[in-house]
Task: structure prediction
Amino acid sequence: MNHIPFNKPYLGGKELWYISQAHAKGQLAGDGSYTKHCQLWLERRVGCRKALLTHSCTAALEMAAILADIRPGDEVIMPSYTFVSTANAFVVRGGVPVFVDIRPDTLNLDESKVEEAITPRTRAIVPVHYAGVSCEMDVIMEIAKRYNLLVIEDAAQGILSSYKGRPLGSIGHLGTFSFHETKNIISGEGGALLINDPELVERAEIIREKGTDRSKFFRGQVDKYTWVDIGSSYLPGEIIAAFLMAQIEEAENIISRRLRIWDRYHRAFAALESQGRVRLPIIPDSCGHNAHMYYLLLQSLKDREIFIELMKEREIQCVFHYVPLHTSPQGQAVSRVDGRLEVTEDLANRLVRLPLWLGLEEHQDRVIDAVAGSLRLGS
Ligand SMILES: *Cc1c(COP(=O)(O)O)cnc(C)c1O
Result:
């Protein structure tokens, strides 16, 4: 392989077989046996009360915003250093994202800045587990309890990661996963809503089924189904669920292989870090991570531009990540910033992500050599 891409979706091998089974059974709409299997697996493995497959993590976040009863003007505390959907899901309900700064070590929501951002309009906190490394959930849950707020974990990148031994997505009142092809476990597009608060389960099923009590009908709890609430069509068809099932069966294997790649980068770059040339990811002792991402923090925006260019000359694709949402046109129009987002603005400019996908193993030395070479040339 000459060109090394940033991402390459992994296919376990059984995806097409399971899709053909769904096809043969004539089970194509949502909530068939593959959906049920995937949901059951998530419930057991994550330990959530209920898991519901969705079209995407974005859709799961939108469901969470409805469940949180976000009304126009209600505030939702979150980092600015995140994907647009974390904020947009609430904005479509009229909610106002309130951005607080991130921690310099994990790049996660700085829990020490959450309390001062709370106002009488605050309804929810959305911790985003960046790179599959957990936020400081004990502190966030304690604040939420004191102020009677809902916690919605954006665990899009966090499947099978943990915090103090507890799987991500099982800690907040609600959690969301993404199965987008850039994530660890994929179905092309796809996601899940994880519900831990038992009081939200029934309404979540209704919202996902176009505002009807159709799920109850299928369980024989009502004799006909009807329109009872707002909602939309958030459920994926069985073709997607069949694909996901094949991936889920390999989840532990996929993540342990990713961890080996991650660890090899981490060992290889330790010397560069001790020379002060880069900063490597920091994983707190309380966090078990899933090797979703390997990034480097360089010295400046300029250094990053040069680095990406030098890697490109070596045919290795490296990419930066989020442009902080508070600096975007839509972010400025509909959100509020609490305090100064100094860490966000600084680190967002200096972070670069390296290729990490299954199959990279045989090319990884080339990436490692290129990183060392590019850093030497670039400074
Ligand atoms: C990928 C991602 C999303 C969106 O996931 P989709 O499944 O593409 O909707 C949301 N939040 C974060 C933090 C993500 O990384």
Summary: DSSP finds 14 helices and 13 strands in the chain.
